[in-house]
Fold Glutamyl-tRNA(Gln) amidotransferase subunit A.
Amino acid sequence: ITAEQLTQDTLAKIKELEPKLNAMITVIDDAKPAENLDFSNELAGIPIAVKDNIITNNVKTTAASHILYNYVPVYDATVVSKLKAAKMTIIGKTNMDEFAMGSSSENSYFGAPKNPWDLTKVTGGSSGGSAAAVAGGEVIAALGTDTGGSIRQPAAFNGIFGIKPTYGRVSRWGLIAFGSSLDQIGVMTKRVQDSAKILNVLSGADDHDATVSEREVPDFTKALNQDVKGLRVAVPEEYFGEGISEKVKALIKEQIKVLEDHGAIINKVSLPHTKYVIPDYYIIASSEASSNLQRFDGIRYGYRSKDAKNLLDVYVKSRSEGFGDEVKRRIMLGSFALSAGSYDRFFRQAAKVRTLICRDFEKIFEENDVIVGPTTPTPAFGLNSKTKDPLEMYANDILTIAANLAGVPAASVPAGLVDGMPVGLQIMAKRFDEESIFRVADFIERSN
Ligand code: GLN
């Protein structure tokens, strides 16, 4: 098959599936493979989708918000430049929760994507479109972003592999910022090995983003096809506590048993501050979001209210009409937590609790290589079943958020089915040790 043919076949497949899945906000109908393809690079000519909060030159980038519904950037995010340098073909921009705020992708201005396993269920979020595009068979890989679980939770809900690298592994230049101390770009694929190859391409220092580490990037594919003998695996009791479905727990315990049967050393541990991760995250992430979203003023880009009479009106009306309910909720929460009267009681407290959560992880990683547990408390839930109650929606993130607060790499690999729907095994490792994650994930994939 030629790269041209593969591109055309992929576009045809997307066209066939989109009315059902709604996984993409923009399909790049005139996508063409890069010129002078050199097939010693295995990624050359392979189509990939990119989440719509990642800037793409000349291709509309909306972050699934009304306020950016017509925004066409004039440059590429670093990750997009890197995919293009590897001669991958960008084929579309995926659906998501508005500004990546949500756990079901139902906060999209463009309507929710649907779970290919059961079209009445959510895809998870916020990278729900990326997950559905991969799981549904439109593409073999997509970029996602993860601030509190937005790669891992939809990966789990759609039965695919998703990895959020270490904070500082991959450049965020050109990512529409949500929570800058938490956001990471990562990869969502059907196969673990494809993820390792793509993360090789994305990783590493960038003159445009000072938060990226200068440290050398290992070849992640070297971690594939290894055994797990002697690997020290921590299992936190809190990840098997109240609120986690019994069937999910049972399935995850089976996977842990597989690791043990193959020589891994299983250690029971505790992450004692787990009960604080949700309130802690929602204060920190909303505070950062309220600051990051100030730039959407109706003037620089995107939507501008038609009936504004003066400058203040332009700001107020454009933002009131341009942002959805969840985004407004976070802006209000964050502005409140940062305001002079509440900063000490909320933001400063949250920052301190974050340090305690980081220490929980440091302690465990003194004696363990990875931490494993479920990715989510339940498999994918029904569309519209949690939209009325934001707190119930937030509770979904209880198992994924801590990795973002601590900046450690974390992934979700398919672990089997509960009631016909996929469940994910979460794997976390020390900062900059994505290799241990790939080692375990690839092993689990081969043993299932
Ligand atoms: N569900 C979480 C939130 O709504 C995480 C989102 C994300 O990781 N982008 O903030």
In short: The longest helix spans residues 347-367. The chain has one domain: 1-448. Residues 100-103, 126, 146-150, 178, 285, 397 surround glutamine (CB under 6 Å).
